[in-house]
Amino acid sequence: MSATMTSSSAPSSRSGYRAPVADQDWRNVGKWGGLCTLALVLVSLIGMPVGLDRRILIHPVLSLGYLSLLWIPLVLGFVVSRHVELEGVESPEPGGRDLLAGALTGLLGGFGMAVFIVALDTFNLRDPLVNWSPQLLELLNYGRGLGFGVVAWIAACSVLGLLGSSIHVIPAGVRRVVSYGAFGLLGIAVLEGAIADLSEGFGLQSLTDSIYANRGGVTVVWSIVLVVIIGVVSMLTRGRFKAAKANYGELQGPERKRASMILFLLVALLTIILPLFLGTIMNELLANVGLFLLLALGLNIVVGLAGILDLGYVAFFAVGGYTTAVLTSPDSPFFAPEMHFAITLVIVVVFAGLVGLIIGAPVIRMRGDYLAIVTLGFGEIIRLLFMSDWLKPYFGGAQGITNVPGVDLGFVTIKGTDPRSVFYLVLVFCALAIYISWRLQASRLGRAWMAIREDEKVAEAMGINTVNAKLLAFVVGAVLASFSGAILVAKVGSVFPNSFMILVSIIILVVVIVGGMGNIAGVLVGSFVLIGVLGGPRQPGLLHEFQSFKLLIYGALLVFMMLQRPEGLVPSARRSQELHQEEFLQDVWLKGEEHEGEEHEEELHAAEASGAEGHEGSGA
Amino acid sequence: MTATIERKSARQVSKVDRFLTLIRIFLVSLIVIGVLAFIAQQVAPDNPFARWRNPDAVGLTGDQFKGLLMSGLSQGAMYGLIALGYSMVYGVLGFINFAHGEVFMAGAMTGFIASDKFSANGLWESNFLLSLVIIIVLAIMVSTLTAVLMERVAYRPLRESPRLIPLITSIGVSFFIQNAVMGVFGPSTKSYPQLPQWLSKQRSILTFEIAGTKLLVLLVAAMSMAGLWYLVERTRTGKAMRAVAEDKEIAALMGINVNRTIVTTFAVGGAMAGIAGILWGLLFRSVTHMTGFLPGIKAFTAAVVGGIGNLPGAMIGGISLGSAESIAPLVILEPLGVPGVSQLKDAVAFTVLVLVLLFKPSGLFGEQLSAEDRA
């Protein structure tokens, strides 16, 4: 583990010396340049440029297909010129040397790409490599012949590498404005579907018609306008959010209560009113996000709080789904009581809890990694059983159970054809799940879970009944997942064993990890960003062109997060302390004894702010 | 582990324990009844016990049984080869390399691409043995490279982190490789070219009818295992590997290059998986990007059955798992009246995993773990 990696423009580092431009770490540049080539060629061969070309982000210059390649030299240019800064060690000031390193990295990548294009033109390797196609060549050449393609790639990659490395060099204020502008524009382009839909609901269609071109994508004029607007706004609001957040954090007693109440009412109002203005597709999307949020909240309790890596989580999802289908559908092959959804839910809870106990009891004492594989085995066993001929008379085998009625509320029937009503149903359960997780987190049980996560033996020595606590984690997680399964089945109107592949477990795990293990806000962010934008195992997200690549991206994200930021995007203070203990200790060591107390205080504040009580992590 | 259990407060544990005992009794009695019913049926097909659950059971002839055993053995030998990789990595680093199945798949995929090319230019038919040797070498190279890269990129930075972190990472690696291979080579099922007649024809050895391919699989697996055993037990590299598995820090103090040894471990495990990949291709003649998933988990099961960290154990575990999953559905489940038993092959393998971890988590041959894992 490296010591804290700070951006090179941190105020303390300005005292460094200026390194000569030619003083390059050539090996490093060669390494990242090679990686750049590899990544570019791999992405091309996987078929992203061609597959994603239809989605246009900025009309007519930039499609998602090109973006899938162009980000590589940009990011690698940034990475190659980054310095690890150690407290108290003098480091060179960012400057021409870093710019050259970035540009060279990009140049190497560009050369690689040029060679690739020439090879693409000369040889035919279509037999094993399915994406070795004339379309790819055409696309990479921008449709203007081989010579143009070669020159353009070398130039474009060098410039992007240079841009990437210049992020270190330009002043912080400029960097802020530019990055806000760029990410804001990207966001607006990606969210096109949602924004267009929303503005239609509000009757602002003419505005979005002018922003977005006919075939999709922001028009060039509007992209410039938007970047300027976002940049200006970011300059004007600079520091306001942080100040507001700090203000909120400092509020005490009734004032804080009132502020929280207002915040809560605002969010609640927004989530209730927004869907009314959204169309079918966006509501469908929101409902899917909600379903996975429910699952992720459940898994967050199991993995995030109790630290049990349950890879067979999908089993509980399946149990909820199948119980609902059997009890409500008239087509259930063996036993069809055609109950009402509300009564079914009670039975679903009981069943899921029982299955949680049955699966949990044998595995609870296993070591963490064995437990992961065994739960994975259980998840597969349950799917295989639902699919087998043996249980076909009860659960319909591979054909599953169809004709599940929606949720009849008397005045309205909630079912898949009306995604808005499904969304509201999901919303109710998500709110419930969030409330449960929130209350549990700070409860005695929640603290017991966190203690077990940190060190099971110590937790046990402290008098926590680890077996019971872990079983309860399983049961709570199972119940939340079964709710999601029940709603999914009521929404889709049928249930098939193949909706419950191991894949689902892993995607939920990615959602929880990317968002931030053990943190409700993190899980919320994770499900919105991943399920909303990329999509679930079968459900398309905003970027539905990603359909065939999203599993790849999920895998890559999981690895990346584990390597770079295991605590997730929105970390829970305590969890990130546990994961970075070593770096934390290293920092303390580097900064010397006198800072130790200070550090300690800060950590305490951080832990308190996230709602965690006490400070057990620092002792270890 | 056992020590921790005993220290638990007595009252609460007993509930869970009682439940576990119930599960054990239930599973064991299922197996016993199934086997007894099977035996009863073989001895006297019309007795009421044999007819009890499954009135139309026909039982197995001796030849069928031997056939099942042979396919179980040859599949098990492959599981064993893959399991070696799990076992070695677990022995040295103490974490489950979930992506090891993908290393195996990479070997099988390489074998397909090369053999497809050979079959197009006629070498496959004209000189099968030469092309077989070439594809095995290629598969070993690709698999080794995959394993080593995996270690360098994903696992080395995480060497000191909590045990579950590298496991989660390896799940991500597995997902990534699967889908990258799907993207690059397409999602279709790829078929190996036809094997020459002299290889695939049935042979009779000691009254066992066995297809030549399966014989080849068993032979190659045995040879690789012998080679590995020699490497680990008789060479300096092997000694270094064992030392690192025992205690990394002390090994480093003794002048062993720990990093290089770990890379070697990954490479050797990868090579075994590459060989297994080719054998898989020869045996089933089809490979997709998902080929690595199930065999990977089953091989892990095999490693656990044999006692993770124990190399001969991994091979024996693989062979027992392979035979169990090919025989158990017909010998235990069919007499119990379960229809469509062949679909439950994979479920049987997972049940074996659960059973082993319930009854004897240390596996058949005990665990040989490094000091920090034993603690």
Task: Write a structural description.
In chain A, 67% of the residues lie in helices and 2% in strands. Chain A contains 27 helices and five strands. Chain A has helices spanning 26-46, 48-51, 64-80, 96-122, 134-140, 146-169, 172-190, 192-202, 205-211, 220-236, 240-250, 253-273, 280-305, 314-328, 341-363, 368-387, 392-395, 419-442, 444-454, 456-461, 466-492, 502-515, 520-534, 550-564, 573-579, 581-591, 596-609, and strands at 56-59, 62-63, 218-219, 407-408, 413-414. A three-stranded mixed sheet of chain A has the order 2-1-3. A two-stranded antiparallel ribbon of chain A has the order 4-5. Chain A is globular and about 75 Å long. The model of chain A is unreliable at 1-14, 594-604 and 606-620 (pLDDT under 50). Chain B has a domain at 79-322: ABC transporter involved in vitamin B12 uptake, BtuC (Orthogonal Bundle). Chain B is 74% helix and 3% strand. Chain B is globular, with a radius of gyration of 22 Å. The chains are: A mainly alpha (620), B mainly alpha (375). Chains A and B meet through helix 1, helix 15, helix 16, helix 21 and helix 22 of A and helix 1, helix 2, helix 5, helix 8 and helix 14 of B.
Intertermini distance of chain B:
9 Å
Radius of gyration of chain B: 22 Å
Overall helicity of chain B? over 70%
Q: Figure out the total of helices of chain B.
A: 17
Outline of chain A: globular
Number of domains of chain A: 4
Identify the CATH architecture of the domain at 79-322 in chain B. Orthogonal Bundle
Mean pLDDT of chain B: 84
Number of strands of chain B: 4
Distinct helical segment count of chain A: 27
Largest two-chain interface: A-B, 65 and 64 residues
Q: Identify the strand order in the major beta sheet of chain A.
A: 2-1-3
Unreliable stretches of chain A: 1-14, 594-604, 606-620
